[in-house]
Write a structure and sequence with these properties.
With 278 residues, this protein is of the alpha/beta class. It is 37% helix and 16% strand. The chain has one domain (10-260): Alpha-Beta Barrel (TIM Barrel), CATH 3.20.20.
């Protein structure tokens, strides 16, 4: 696995620049969510990731309005839930997300989960129209296995596939496909929601070598890979700062390989309606 420059702070594709580390807001609600969004932007986060399914778009929007950071200087990502994938529901859902966020546009709308019973071309066709209308700058998908991702890219221009990715879950099929298609892989649950991953002896040893936390090493392993960015979530301002502090050290080839060997198929998010994973 190639070692990247420690100065890497973003990945660019098709006119959009993804910060290597964004703020995932999935578990945040209410004023606490708004405060975290404001704090994240103040300390340098430049991608705020939410979704209609999270039920927190209004709180995310409140945090954005509190911030003194120019709206042009950061990305806002939200996602279209499965219930809203039928073509006759897409526009209303997108407009509702914008009302909730208090924004005229978002930078990125994603299909949150695919649905086998809804024609993908219909959903993406409407999303492409909304991109042309300026309601979103870019579109992408989430939780798409490689064959479905290739089908989606054949329908319209996409920029990312957001999938679960961390040292305990390899993406040996999806990641090469993302790269082949010229996209970026956005890793959600990049710390496996804590637990065993943050106590793994290999990660603990590497973290001690670098004088870093295990979380920082796990995140560094992800973003050091070409075409990979991550959106860790947290309810702590301290961890917000910690998660962002991964740009000033590098893992060597042996460390990258050792972490890569930790994969054991542990999947945090796997609902009954999930697609057949690669």
């Amino acid at each position: 696995m190639a070692v990247a420059d420690a100065a890497k702070v973003d990945e660019s594709v098709a006119g959009i620049t993804f910060p290597a580390i964004g703020f995932g807001t999935m578990r945040q609600r209410g004023d606490a969510c708004a405060e975290l969004v404001d704090a994240a932007l103040a300390m340098g986060y430049r991608n705020i990731d939410t979704a209609r399914k999270y039920g927190n778009e209004a709180a995310v929007g409140a945090g954005i309005r509190r911030s003194s950071v120019s709206r042009d200087d950061f990305l806002v990502t939200t996602k279209l839930p499965p219930d809203d994938l039928p073509a006759d529901r897409v526009r209303a859902a997108v407009e509702d997300s914008l009302r909730n966020l208090g924004l005229d546009y978002v930078d990125l709308f994603l299909v949150h989960w695919p649905r086998a019973d809804v024609p993908l071309a219909d959903t993406l066709g409407v999303m492409a129209d909304l991109r042309e209308a300026g309601l979103t700058r870019f579109i992408g998908v989430s939780n798409f296995p490689s064959a479905l991702l290739e089908e989606a890219v054949g329908i319209t221009d996409l920029v990312t596939n957001q999938v679960e990715y961390h040292p305990y879950l390899a993406q040996d099929v999806v990641l090469p496909k993302v790269r082949d298609l010229g996209l970026v892989l956005t890793a959600y649950c990049p710390l496996g929601r804590g637990g065993p991953l943050l106590r793994d002896p290999v990660l603990v040893e590497i973290a001690a070598t670098h004088g870093r936390s295990v979380a920082q090493v796990a995140l560094r392993w992800l973003v050091q890979q070409p075409r990979v960015v991550a959106v860790p979530g947290t309810s702590s301002v301290e961890h917000l700062r910690e998660n962002l502090s991964v740009y000033d050290f590098t893992l060597d080839d042996s460390e990258m390989a050792a972490i890569g060997r930790l994969a054991r198929g542990d999947r945090v998010v796997n609902p009954p309606t999930a697609p057949a994973w690669d």
